[in-house]
Amino acid sequence: MMRILLTGATGFIGKELVKAVSEKEYTVAVLVRDPNKVNTIFTKKIIQKIKIIDSSSDKWSTEIAEFAPEVVVHLAAFLTSKDDLDIIPDLIASNITFGAQLLQSLKGTGLTAFINTGTFAEYFYGDGQYSPSYLYSATKTAFHNIIKYYQQIGSFKVVNVIPYTIYGQVDSQPKIIDIIYNSFFADTPSNMSGGEQTLDFVHIEDVVSFYCLLIDQVSLLKNNWEDYHLGTGQGNTLRRIAEILSEKLNLPENINWGALPYRDRDTMYSVAPIAKLINHFNWVPVITINKGIDKFLAIKKISTF
Fold this sequence. Notes:
The chain is α/β, with parallel strands linked by helices.
């Protein structure tokens, strides 16, 4: 059975991906900072199927080498739009140092593929050229050269997945769709920027579906490095998302659009170019924005009880 290692297994994508791969014929290990969190997120059935490696232990590197994964899915990251002095050490530690330590631990293990997770915020102009919107996305771009170094000495394939605006599950860090949803139930109108930003909202189920397909077919990839922009190929403005929610909730909008200024590097248009997903895998997302928001509202309803 293929041995797979996942980092960021308790994060937004990770917890759903772990559930999916645990149902397949894989040997799965997860690298996490808090093993106790694993017990609160996953069922006993899933926990019995996976190996848990504690990254806070001084033995985690040795445990990874002993596990010798064939495929690594690297999801762990520190996400923030802040760029003050105090935040820089955490960004570097999580998005660069940790990744380098992980790759160093994988030397000589027979790794065949490293699936890295980027962000659409690395492409401010949406033209496929690197131009990080935030310091966070700059650290993600900087990590690419470290991956390339280890690839040269390790001869494994690299797949860089760039997810766009993911939604569809409850997360500890509220996403833009959560903020808009919460505004309907606020006592006073929520102040937001103009809402003209056009983003590609891709449902978490489609995201997990693509990662699973990629793991299954990673050995078929011809090139040593591939970038895949993971979205729907369609954009919706934040105002349109609010309109859809208003219709489905049968509640009036409760947002002061334009009350806040746009930030200097706010992404105004970010829609995934998905031609490569179709050409290489014959894959397209199946959840439309209307269906996805229905699923999102169903999850919200459950989480309030």
